[in-house]
Design goal:
The complex is a heterodimer of chains A (529) and B (328).
Chain A lengths: L1 H20 L13 E6 L14 H10 L4 E3 L5 E3 L2 E6 L5 E6 L13 H14 L3 H4 L3 E8 L2 E6 L20 H4 L19 E7 L3 E6 L13 E6 L3 H9 L5 E2 L9 H5 L4 E4 L8 E7 L9 H10 L2 H9 L3 E3 L22 H10 L11 E7 L6 H13 L3 E6 L3 H11 L4 E7 L4 H4 L1 H4 L19 H12 L3 H18 L2 E7 L3 E4 L2 E2 L16 E2 L2
Parallel strand pairs in A: 1-10, 15-16, 15-17
Antiparallel strand pairs in A: 2-3, 4-5, 5-7, 6-7, 8-9, 9-10, 11-19, 12-19, 13-17, 13-18, 14-18, 20-21
Helix pairs in contact in A: 8-10, 15-16
Chain B lengths: L1 H33 L5 H9 L4 H11 L5 H13 L5 E2 L4 E2 H36 L4 H15 L2 H15 L17 H38 L3 H9 L3 H38 L5 H10 L3 H29 L7
Antiparallel strand pairs in B: 1-2
Helix pairs in contact in B: 1-12, 2-3, 5-6, 5-8, 5-10, 5-12, 6-8, 7-8, 7-10, 8-10, 9-10, 10-11, 10-12, 11-12
The chains are: A alpha+beta (529), B mainly alpha (328).
């Protein structure tokens, strides 16, 4: 093994020096063959993102199971399994022409029956398909290569929902007549994708192999893809450094390691293919809390947090400050600055007005702060908040718990005052943002619902309107209006949008040509010999 | 003949003790787990970043979480009685399959680590005892103290930095070169190279324990009558140390080693995470975090069986080392 290991390193170095000789020519012809090692933070629970949309499953799913469309960096649709599409002027009929001669890995043809079946399945068992496809009345299949999605009312976000990982097209003949939740296709996936599933060694890795019968005869280019699950962030850094891992995404290493890794000559850092969805990190208030039900207290907190300083302290500046729930990278973002600029005097004054005067010990009140433990930065955000609010006399106690306990506390028991959390905007605010602020989505026990218990009829009307508004200009105006009301109300405090880096070996090319980057089918990726 | 009787007696005793012990462990674990806040559906939903009330209800039904606690326990025990560890809805696979994919890796890691620990511990301990109070003893005492006080994961991290990152001699991740199609010796060499660092990291603490234990036991044995007899017989001092002193000193060491097997399983969680070792320790940790209790109970059950089997083996080993033990 030792010898093998060293050879790989030497080969990598040799490959590098050859690259240097070639003068780093950009327009190189794609090469065929090789094995790509994709380093992933966690092991998926299923290899098809039907019953879960947890990141590890999204990362694997599209390699075998494709979608109707793919998207360029600006989320404009491009052909995938559908070659043509059109939306009726009233926005209620989506017609798709399917790619002919597409076969599933087991040789059965892919037809409109599979599309209709998949969309029905997504509508019933997918964690957000129930919302995304809520308006779907039926999927008509006039012939094997035509599918028409018929809606009861417009769903302007729907055309952006059809990536492979978000809305996988599944083989009807594999699922039909079985319980989709226990169907083994999630363990041994069959799809139309560029890679064939070969093996899944639990706790270790998944291996995919080149699909020789892929519908695009020029693709895929690599022979094999190994998805390796490396739980430890330090071990992932080592993997990129010593060349045993080729690519990883969503900044797969500790932020503190980035400066060191950026000096490693064979590593490349890229933000391509991260535009399909952006996260916005927030400080969520429980509006039923005895403190945060007061608007002035929330305004005071808003005045006391210096977002830029926080971003630097907790995320080494990897991100963009953001005072509204729609990410600055989104077309629907409202760039107006927060009405509550960093101003400690103003904050103190507001707290005095709200009736929370400093006591004998200089403290106004003590309040616990929770955090979603899924991110590495979560605790640091709380520590920053403790320091910041300490200055205006609010004593913050940080309370740690694991994912499950966090979920129960915030969404089921609602025994919290305020918490640090993050939400994905997803591909559209109606899907990713509305859920957090819509009063009708205040649902106990449902994670990522309206945890604040925010209830503003004007906001409800705007969100409900935008969900069915066919005119893009009017729709954008509604979201801007919503963000203005949000900014005044501060039902929660949006903090920043993290910047996610893809780390890869220099020998990897064309890994992220679409909006969803490495979560796409990665059919075009190729490696220097 | 006597040995055969003894084995039978040990097995009988173990069977009588083991049954209720295992049952107790399972029932207590099950009830304790109920005290943990949140359930598997919460974890699945929060990992996914999206959920609806309907999907939450669907997941709870699938996990059997909509049933009362006691009927969940009854159903688990009922399946167990038919030697069925149940099904993990999280992984959509049978618990036995999930565990059996990991168990051999953990057993290999533990046995290798234990062998390393015993071997190094006994050698170091013997050397220390033989030169007690002189410089080899002093130097090794410091080394042993260092090993004793450094946490295994730190030793592992430093070993990774040195051997994987700086020198590039040994791999730091997984239990084999993934995607390689080695056979025969190449396969064994590959596996062995992957085993070295995690086994040493796991063993480091126990090396220190055994070294000190062997040193103390050997020093104590030196004063025994049979040692004087051996000297009087004119045996070579090396043989005396090996056959008389060490053999007797091994009894406390093996006893402690048997007990340490449980600790090793605990340490395996950390080491397996650090080295990406696809073993049971990590599975257990992930099962706790995921509230995937069917998997966790399966791991706990098999682990307790593993410890019981190890204790039987130690019992038998004692009988071989010292026929006086367990005669009564």
């Amino acid at each position: 093994m030792t010898a093998q290991f060293r050879t790989t390193r030497r080969a990598t170095l040799a490959g590098l020096s050859m690259l240097a000789l070639a003068g780093g020519a950009r327009a190189q012809a794609a090469k065929k063959g090789g094995t790509l090692t994709f380093v992933q933070n966690a092991e998926p629970t299923t290899l098809v993102s039907l019953t879960t949309v947890a990141t590890p499953s999204l990362t694997c799913s599209a390699k075998t199971t494709e979608g109707l469309l793919e998207y360029d960096y600006d989320i404009k649709p491009r052909p995938a399994l559908a070659t043509e599409w059109s939306i009726s002027p009233d926005g209620t009929r989506y017609s798709f022409k399917l790619r002919p001669n597409v076969k599933f890995h087991d040789g059965k043809p892919f037809t409109s029956a599979d599309v209709a079946y998949s969309i029905q399945l997504l509508k019933t068992v997918h964690p957000r398909g129930r919302n995304t496809f809520a308006n779907v009345v039926e999927v008509q299949t006039p012939d094997p290569l035509s599918a028409i999605i018929v809606l009861s009312k417009p769903a302007p976000y729907l055309i952006k929902a059809l990536t492979a990982a978000e809305s996988p097209m599944l083989p009807k003949h594999v699922y039909e007549g079985s319980d989709p939740l226990t169907n083994q296709n999630g363990n041994v996936p069959i799809g139309t994708g560029p890679y064939l599933f070969k093996e899944w060694v639990r706790g270790s890795h998944v291996i995919y192999e080149r699909n020789p019968n892929y519908w695009d005869p020029d693709l895929p280019r690599i022979d094999r893809m190994v998805c390796k699950f490396v739980r430890d962030a330090g071990a992932r850094s080592v993997a990129f450094e010593n060349g045993s891992g080729d690519i990883g995404y969503r900044t797969p290493v500790a932020l503190a390691d980035l400066d060191r890794l950026k000096k490693v000559p064979h590593l490349v850092f890229s933000t391509d293919g991260t535009s399909y969805s952006y996260n916005v990190q927030t400080m969520q208030f429980n509006l039923d809390s005895q403190y945060f039900k007061h608007l002035k207290v929330r305004q005071a907190v808003a005045h006391a947090i210096d977002r830029a300083a926080m971003l630097k302290a907790v995320a080494y500046g990897y991100g963009t400050v953001c005072a509204v729930p729609i990410s600055p990278k989104s077309e629907f973002h409202d760039p107006t600055p927060s009405p509550y600029a960093y101003d400690l005097k103003k904050a103190e004054q507001l707290l005095d007005e709200a009736g929370f005067k400093r006591g004998a010990d200089k403290i106004r009140f003590k309040v616990p702060m929770d955090f979603n433990p899924i991110g590495d930065e979560s605790r640091k955000v709380c520590e920053f908040t403790r320091a910041a609010l300490g200055r205006i006399g609010i004593a913050v106690e940080i309370r740690a718990q694991d994912l499950s306990a966090f979920s129960k506390r915030i969404y089921t028991d609602r025994e919290f005052d305020f918490t640090y959390n993050g939400h994905s905007n997803l591909f559209d605010p109606t899907v990713g943002v509305q859920r957090i602020y819509w009063s009708k989505n205040f649902k106990k026990g449902v994670p990522f619902s309206n945890a604040s218990n925010y209830n503003n009829p004007k906001v409800d009307a705007l969100l409900e309107g935008a969900a069915v508004e066919n005119d893009p200009v009017k729709r954008k105006a509604m979201f801007i209006e919503f963000q203005k009301i949000y900014a005044e109300d501060v039902p929660d405090l949006s903090l920043y949008t993290p910047l996610y880096l893809t780390i890869k070996n220099k020998r990897v090319h064309e890994d992220s040509p679409t909006a969803d980057g490495v979560e796409s089918n990665m059919s075009r990726v190729w490696l220097d010999a | 003949m006597r040995m055969g009787r003894r084995i039978a007696a040990t097995l009988r005793r173990t069977a009588i003790h083991a049954g209720p012990t295992v049952l107790g462990i399972i029932v207590l674990d099950f009830l304790f787990l109920q005290l943990m806040p949140g359930d598997a559906a919460d974890v699945m939903a929060i990992e996914a970043g999206s959920a609806t009330a309907e999907t939450m209800a669907m997941m709870r039904e699938r996990f059997g979480l909509d049933q009362p606690v006691l009927s969940q326990l009854a159903s688990f025990l009922g399946h167990l009685a038919q030697l069925d560890l149940g099904y993990s809805p999280r992984f959509n696979a049978s618990v036995l399959d999930i565990i059996m994919a990991r168990l051999p890796n953990t057993v290999l890691l533990m046995l290798t680590a234990l062998s390393f620990a015993l071997l190094l511990g006994i050698v170091l301990g013997s050397v220390m005892a033989a030169w007690a109070g002189r410089w080899p003893d002093r130097v090794l005492s410091v080394v042993v103290l260092l090993l004793y006080s450094m946490p295994g994961f730190w030793v592992g991290l430093m070993a990774v930095v040195l051997f994987s990152v700086k020198l590039g001699w040994l791999p730091n991740d997984s239990n084999m070169t993934i995607g390689s199609d080695f056979t025969g010796w190449a396969l064994i060499a590959d596996r062995a190279a992957h085993l070295v660092l995690p086994a040493l990291a796991l063993a480091s603490f126990f090396v220190a324990v055994y070294a000190r234990l062997v040193r103390a036991s050997m020093l104590e044995v030196q004063r025994q009558d049979f040692m004087r007899t051996a000297h009087a017989k004119g045996l070579h001092p090396f043989l005396i140390q090996l056959r008389h002193a060490l053999r007797n000193a091994l009894i406390p060491v093996t006893t402690v080693a048997g007990m340490h097997l449980g600790n090793l399983l605990g340490g395996a969680v950390v080491v397996e995470t650090l080295f990406g070792w696809p073993g049971m320790g990590r599975l257990a940790l992930e099962a706790v975090l995921a509230r995937d209790f069917s998997v966790l109970l399966g791991v706990l059950l098999l682990s307790s069986l593993l410890v019981i089997v190890a204790n039987v083996a130690i019992d038998l080993l004692h009988a071989w080392l010292d026929p006086r033990i367990g005669e009564a």
